[in-house]
Amino acid sequence: MSKTHVPHATEASRSGEPWVSQEQPYDAILLTGFGGPEGQDDVIPFLRNVTAGRGIPDERLEEVATHYRHFGGISPINEHNAQLRAAIDTELQQRGMNLPVYWGNRNWAPYLENAVTEAAQAGHVRLLAIATSAYSSYSSCRQYREDFARAIVDTGLSGVVTIDKVRQFFDHPGFVRPFIEGVGDALKGFESAGMAPQDIRILFATHSIPMADAARSGPKELELGAGGAYAAQHVAVGEYIMDQLRAELPARNTTDWELVYQSRSGPPSQPWLEPDVCDRISELPAEGVEAVIIVPLGFLSDHMEVLWDLDEEAMEAAHQVGLQAVRTPTPGVHHDFVTGLVDLIAERMQAIPPQQRAHVTKLGPWYDVCRPECCENVRRGFRPAAAGMAP
Fold first, then answer.
1. Membrane-crossing residues (predicted)?
2. Which is nearest to 85 in space by CA: 101, 72, 100?
3. Do 315 and 339 fall within a single domain?
4. Per-residue 3-state assignment (H helix, E strand, C coil) for 272-308
5. Structural domain tally of the chain?
6. What's 100-112 look like in SS3?
7. Residue 226 CB coordination number (10 Å)
8. According to the annotation, is 102 in a ligand binding site?
């Protein structure tokens, strides 16, 4: 197999095998985020970056900008990523893993290109990336891989810098444990107030994406249904969380749960994953539900789409129909989450066999090297990407 079949990869990943079997000494970690504005003047330029190439006029962008302006034009995502970077760095140092952590964003400063350049100037050219997204889809995995390839090429560092990426960690116990704790605490709160388990509904919420993209998420050969790997991964994690909580208290077997979606941004004519979280909340009283637990299962931290779409819109929807409601925490810098990310770094460096890797669903452990034709963007096709096999 050609060594270029996995572009911009280290020696351990170039063969294109799903899981690496060769240990790889990395020079540094590359934490990669979405980015967010730092003030009112940044909001429209940031949204232009996010929607580049779609021809969306500023008038329409201003509709979304109101969400940011409600919070002073500042997205909390950059502060959260700064905290996560520091927490990962501390955990690495405590384990004696002398790996600096660089941080670069897709859509706002600090930009990914600057992080890659800074790393290379310091002599750190074998980078292992962590994208701040746990699931498989174009926007949550492949687009980050395209960003890596673009950053390497645009900085003139092709053939010098390599970037591998840790596997998708949707079902790593370090990512899942904070959700189990959060849902458990919310259930106990309602139960201690005298709420019957069957009167509580749990809504696991994640970002909606176009149905056509969802169907193409993950490798084609897995045949995971209309929602592809994206929906299947969320459902599998939700099932695991509920299994753990029902084992603690069998009466919770009567507490129903479901996967819902939020934050759709496409035209009405384009099918996106449904049901919408607010639509479902409005229907719950007719189903005998008295309380709702909203779980931001698709998100790592309390960024704008959690603070606005869930804490503002979803909570208002619950209030309007008389439901008691609580939103559970995101992983943030929860100790188990941070240690889990560093476990993923160590796992990759040591080439741990897949059967020995930590995972809590039958879908895991996910692949080290993304498979060919994985997570296609229907509108853009396959662009050059690192950390996976070329289509």
1. none
2. 101
3. no
4. ECCCEHHHHHHHHHHHCCCEEEEECCCCCCCCHHHHC
5. 2
6. CEEEEECCCCCEH
7. 10
8. no
144 is in an annotated binding site: yes
Ligand-binding site membership of 305 (annotated): yes
The per-residue pLDDT for range 154-176, each reduced to its tens digit, is 999 999 999 999 999 999 999 99
What predicted TM-score, i.e. pTM, was given to this entire model?
Answer: 0.96
Closest CA to 111 of 45, 53, 175, 65: 45
**Buried/exposed 1-27: b ≥16 CB within 10 Å, e otherwise:** eeeeebbbbbebbbbbbebbeeebebb
Give the max Cα distance, the chain: 64
Using DSSP's 3-state secondary structure scheme, residue 63 falls into helix
Domain check: are 81 and 215 in the same one? no
301 is in an annotated binding site: no
- Residues with Cβ within 8 Å of 325's Cβ and at least 6 positions away in sequence, in order, are 281, 291, 292, 293, 294, 314, 315, 318, 319
Say if residue 86 is in the same domain as residue 213.
no
- Read off the pLDDT of residues 44-66 as tens digits, 9 standing for 90 and up: 999 999 998 777 899 889 988 99
